[in-house]
Structure formats: C-alpha cells, structure tokens
C-alpha cells in the first residue's frame, strides 16, 4: 500500500518534470527511485513462473506466457503486437540410463545414471540401446580415438571451470564447456557414434543435469544427453578399471515447427517516435524448470521498464519497445524474425538492450558503442551509482543472442552487468525457480534498465553504430 | 609405492613396540601416522560406491555389499562372521506429481512437482490419485485444521535451519525437520489424510528431494513423499492464491522381510579377548545414491581401523570388532540383532564406536562416558591433536542409531566429531556420491578411529558405564 502511494506521489510530483530536460539528473534519479520501490516486476515474474511454469518453444506453457505478457502490457496501456515466429518443437520423452557392465560389477547389478536429453536430441528405440561408452576430454582426443567411436556412446567429461566463473568470467567458462554440448553431438554422429553424452555444463554438484541446445539436424540426429557431473566422474572412474557398457533410453520427439510469437509492447515516442529503443528478455525457457533466471528476470525487467515510466507518466522522445523474445534457447527464431522485419530500416533501431544473464545483483552496464560515445553515458551511470550499478563497460561486441543480427547490422547493444557467480549452478536445470531470485536485486535490475532506456530514448548526442560492423 | 614402503618400514620399526606399554605416545602416534598415509579406506569406499552403488536393506546392492566387505576383511586376515538380520524390504516405484488446479492456472496447464517417496510409503492407485493439498507448518496447525485433512494431501512446509547447522548444530537442525517426516505420515493418516508430503529436510536448494524413514506401519500406510524445498515453497505460494489440487502417483512396494546380515570382523585380543571394542558404520544406504557419506565413510573408516593395526602388526589386548551394520536407515534391525545376541553378557561390550555423520573433517571425539573417566583420554587426544582432532566432548548420551540399545544397557559410546555443515545438503539425496568425500579427511577419520580403538582396547583404567543408564 505504501509502495502504491509512494508511486502515486512520485507521479504527481513529476508532473512538472516532463517538460524539464529529459535526461536531467532529477528525472533519472526519479526513475531509479520509482523502480526501487516497485514490486511490479517481481509480481510479473511470479505470475510467469508460478502460474505457468516451463515455457519451451512450441509448448503450451510458451503459448500461455505469450498471452500473459501481452495481457499485462495491454493493461499498462502499451501498444501490443504479436510478431509471428515459427519455432522448433522438441518434446522431452523418457530418459533413463544404466551402466550394465563394467570391471568389478557384482553379478546382476547395474548402476543408474542421472541424465537429461539435450534439445534436438534424437530418440533411441523405445526399449533403449546398449553400447560401450568411450570417455574423452576434447575434440582432439575424440579424433584420435575415431576407430572406437563407431557404434559407441561418446562422453565428453569436461569439468566446468567454476573458479573462472568466480573471477567474473562466467560467460567464457560456460562457452568453454558448452561448445562440447553444442557441437559434440553433430561431430560424434558424423563419426558414427550411437549416442552422445556431455558432462553437465554448470558449477554446482548436486547431481542435477543441465540441458541445453545442440547443433543436431535431421541429417545427423542421434540420442544426446547431459549427464550430471557426478555420473560423468563415475563413468570416467569406471572406465579406468575397464570397458563400460551403458543401456540408454531417450525418447524425445522432434515435431514439425510450431506457431508462436514475439510479444512487442511499445511506449510510443513523441517527436522521434519512429526511432526505436528495444528493451528485452526472452520469454521461452528450457522445459526442466520455470526459467526464473533464464530468462524470467529479463522479461520481467523489461516489463518493469514500461511500468516504471508509465507510473511516472514520463513520455520518451523515441519509442521504447519492450520485447519478450520467443525461442532464444533452441533456435533464436524470434530474434531472426524481428531482424528480418526491420533490416530495411535498420537505422531506425537506435539501440537495443537484452537482459539474459539472470537476476544476480547488477553492478553496471555493458555496451557495444563506439569509443567516442562512451562519455555520453556519464549522467546515467551517475544516477545508477547510488544503487551500486555505476560501472560502464564498453566492448566492441556484446553478443546477446536475440540481438546478434541487429548488432551485426550496426545497432548498438546494451546489457545490464550482473553478478553471475552462481548463475551456472542453476542454468538449464530443474532448479532455476523463483526462489533463486532476490526481489531487491530484481528492483535494482529494473532501475538499471529503466534509467538506461529512458536515457537512450531521449539522448541528444549521436550514439553512432556498434563497432562490430566497423571491423 | 612410497605408501607401501612407509607402512612396511613402520611395521619393522614397530616390532619392538608391541611389547612396550600399549598406550604409550609412540604407538598412538605410529597408528595415527600409518592411517594418514594409507589409501585403504578410500579404496574400499570407492569399491562400495562405484562398483555396487545404492545399498538399501533387502536390495541386491545390500547383498553385494555384505559379500564385498566380508571378502575384504577376510583378505586382511580378520575373523569374519555374518550375523543374520531380517530386514524390511521396501522398493521404490514410479513417483510423479502434478499440480492440476490452482488459482490463476492457464487452461490446460499443470505444473510438475519434484518429489521422492519416503521409506515405508504406501502406494497410490497405479493411475494416481487427485486430492486437495493443505499446507501446514507444525503439528498444532495440523490439528487445528483437522476438518480439512480428511481426503486431502497434507504438506508440511518446514524450512531446514541451515543457520543452525552452520553453527555446528546440524544434528538438532535435522531433528527439528525430520520429526515431521518421521511422525507426520502416521498422524496425518490417522486423521484421514489421503497422502502426506514433507518439505525435504536438508540445507541446499538444488531442487533435489531428500528421502528418509517414516513411522508408517501396515495399519496406517498412506502414500508419503518428500518434495523439494522449491516445490514446497511453490505449493505454499500457490495456496496463498487459492485452493491447490494435486495428482499424485507413488507406486512403491512393501515386500515381506528379507534375509540380510551384519558383517562382523574381529581382530582378536590377547589377554582380554572376551572384552569387545566395537568400531562400526552402517552398510545399508538409501536407494537414491551410492551412500558415500551416509554411511560409506563410516564403514570404510571402521575397515581402515583393522587394516591400520594389521599393517603395523599390532595386537590389542581386547578384541577390536569391526561391524558393518545392516538396516540403520529404515529399521535398525542390525543394531537390534547384535544387542539381542549380546545382552546377556553386556559387560563384555567394553566400548562401542559408530561413525555416521559423514566424512567431513574430524575435529575430535564424542563420548558417553562417566565424567570421572574423561581424564583417561588425555593420551589419545594428545595423539590426535597434530591432525586437528584433539577435541574430547563428553555427553551423557551419544545416540548413534545402531548402538542405542547397547548404550541403554550401559555400554559407553564413542563417535568421531566431524564438520557436518554441508552434510545435510546431500543427505538422503541422489547426490551423496564418492566425489563428495575428501580423501584426506577420510584418512583423518581412520586416524581418529584407529587411535581411539587401539587405546580403548588396551586401556588399564576402568571405563565405567554409559551415564545414560544412571538417570
């Protein structure tokens, strides 16, 4: 109740501020403070995760999420468009595995292995398949053991580098592991493997499997799964004692592409309404959890931007466009659809922001702007300094998945910088749930995204183009 | 190789020490050092967990473990006896649950709940049952809502007190939660509940369910499961929005009691061979994991005691008896069988030790001896001080499950004191696996158990009786 009153009072107090210079410190501070007092984003996140649950592309959950987000944005008074996206439709099936033979096995015993199918995985026969497991550490070792691969199940036992993630390099640590998950199945398939396993790419050891995308296509589809770190280590240890044989059952289905949508909600600009500032997160999640951090916080944060500005009755010069992307996880078809629809007027895409690193504590902003544009951001960083989010980091390339094509065409990208040290503990596992999100950090998240969106939508200075196109 | 040589050299050096006062500092130090250089216990733990896997009473894994431990002890030259124990035989079946109705549910959606059946749980019909869920925090609230219980699924949403566990009170923290798991199903059943759920009793949140025993009997058997902390919180949140309905499928079987064994391996004493010092752990585990910490480290530690003393060619005055107990987890029938066989000569049970708090770093010894006996332990604590395990804590009651009847009859109990701050993260979950055990901590564990066993087996002073009988 107090929160609502405070926001209402802010609205009334700010009525005069609309006419003031749009990017003055008072307005930026007002936006930050309003976001820090609002539970709107957390409530949207709770609705998305608690009421709907998982939202994998093509699933009933994804469809319900499109409706829920669109309805919430309409309720705010935003201009809502559903942009059609044809998405891959992969459905998880049974998934079990047992080690049925290994040196030292007591007669009659088998060992259960905990695993989960990877996106795009093919199916085994319904009764499973039995094959030897060969354990490798990298692609070179795989190639060196090509003769053993045919008919075998290949396991990449690559440890996630949590120490690297702890040093603030969670993204690169993830990249080092996820390339085996993404490319490994295709390469193993082309070498004649009967199946593919990867040690889960993530940093906590609670015998939970981390799913994720693969580069598999119809031409090379084989059964592919992530095993838990514990089971990967077990198989590696048993392999040192002698040959290991596994019975593997995976029955996912690769169905025809399904109809889905990006949810687009505009807060129309005033004198520069045709120029667009995108603020976004992705609405689809993996199917094992409710995707609170990946990427519920990104979508809720972007929704929170519109709510914050609406509550303050602030009208931006450029249009601020909230997008809840569809299909980031296993195809990025949503990002491709938006780019295709806008590539002929790409200069009208002034800037684009995606939050997709979870709801950890934000400490600043990452941007792919020209070096000479960096100085323009001093006012917004000053406004964010009181909440500990005043670090501006420029890079030539930001690389948010749904925005990659825009960035390639020169649209400067922005991303909240957040603490990701525990992000990959839960990433793509059943444990990515609402309780992992701290409401105060989500408020900070909305404060960062709102203040920056407003600033971008009103800035006078030229922003230039993303450096990535200049190379 | 170095380790073997060192042990051989220790043997040769110790040949003269056998005749020396048995509890002199040199011999105690020699035992500690030999244990700290040996991989024997870790190798036994690896064999037990990696080669066999889970060892629930009545399972093929438990039978294989009896054989494996007996064979290893015979190989050491110990006198091995298999003591028959009739054990409960409970077998896990399918276990799934979905929230099929709740306020705000999008049409056609249901939410998956992650849970695992509790030991002794009854079964639902094969197709499951559907019932409202009522969420309570304690027995008083359950009683206050008696009218709602009939035909409902009762959920105890009680948060594990990790902060208490972090303060070194993991056992009491566990007790505060586990009483709802143990007694709750019976009480709910007697009040007419259709099913019982408890929030997992444990301190880490990775959406893993912690199983455990219940007090259910044939007269009151209902379906009973542990839900993950995340799912318990989800149901509690949804309950605040309105009524919640669950479809629950649990198909475990309660089979007739099965034949099993305690494995008893004696290192016979010299002049006081009829007096027994028990050193033990329990061989059975829950069925979800390989029971590395619960209680593989206890059994491996006890096996390590015999190996350490054998390797040094040390002959104790009293008989040191390694026991790998059967059925600690869901019946403590092994402890009962041993007590029944020895109760008429209970004074011959000089002392008994069980390690059942996992393989965390040991810092000392816990003992239920008379206050006046405490001073006798100075030499053994001095020997353990260099490995950081010199803390002696006396209590009137130690309470190791398999030794409870012995203690009640006056046998002084001993237990290694270990760091348990993360023990309940993994306890009774699929994640209690070999990788969680630090080999160096296991060596320290063996050092503590070996040094103390030897000391007890040779002590001249009267030990007295456990204070528990004096009350």
UniProtKB/TrEMBL annotation, chains A, B:
<dbReference type="InterPro" id="IPR039866">
    <property type="entry name" value="CPQ"/>
</dbReference>
<keyword id="KW-0458">Lysosome</keyword>
<keyword id="KW-0865">Zymogen</keyword>
<keyword id="KW-0256">Endoplasmic reticulum</keyword>
<keyword id="KW-0121">Carboxypeptidase</keyword>
<keyword id="KW-0862">Zinc</keyword>
<keyword id="KW-0378">Hydrolase</keyword>
<dbReference type="InterPro" id="IPR007484">
    <property type="entry name" value="Peptidase_M28"/>
</dbReference>
<dbReference type="Pfam" id="PF04389">
    <property type="entry name" value="Peptidase_M28"/>
</dbReference>
<dbReference type="GO" id="GO:0005764">
    <property type="term" value="C:lysosome"/>
</dbReference>
<keyword id="KW-0482">Metalloprotease</keyword>
<keyword id="KW-0645">Protease</keyword>
<feature type="domain" description="Peptidase M28">
    <location>
        <begin position="262"/>
        <end position="451"/>
    </location>
</feature>
<keyword id="KW-0479">Metal-binding</keyword>
<dbReference type="GO" id="GO:0004180">
    <property type="term" value="F:carboxypeptidase activity"/>
</dbReference>
<dbReference type="GO" id="GO:0006508">
    <property type="term" value="P:proteolysis"/>
</dbReference>
<protein>
    <recommendedName>
        <fullName>Carboxypeptidase Q</fullName>
    </recommendedName>
</protein>
<dbReference type="GO" id="GO:0046872">
    <property type="term" value="F:metal ion binding"/>
</dbReference>
<dbReference type="GO" id="GO:0005576">
    <property type="term" value="C:extracellular region"/>
</dbReference>
<feature type="signal peptide">
    <location>
        <begin position="1"/>
        <end position="19"/>
    </location>
</feature>
<keyword id="KW-0732">Signal</keyword>
<keyword id="KW-0325">Glycoprotein</keyword>
<keyword id="KW-0333">Golgi apparatus</keyword>
<dbReference type="GO" id="GO:0070573">
    <property type="term" value="F:metallodipeptidase activity"/>
</dbReference>
<comment type="subunit">
    <text>Homodimer. The monomeric form is inactive while the homodimer is active.</text>
</comment>
<keyword id="KW-0964">Secreted</keyword>
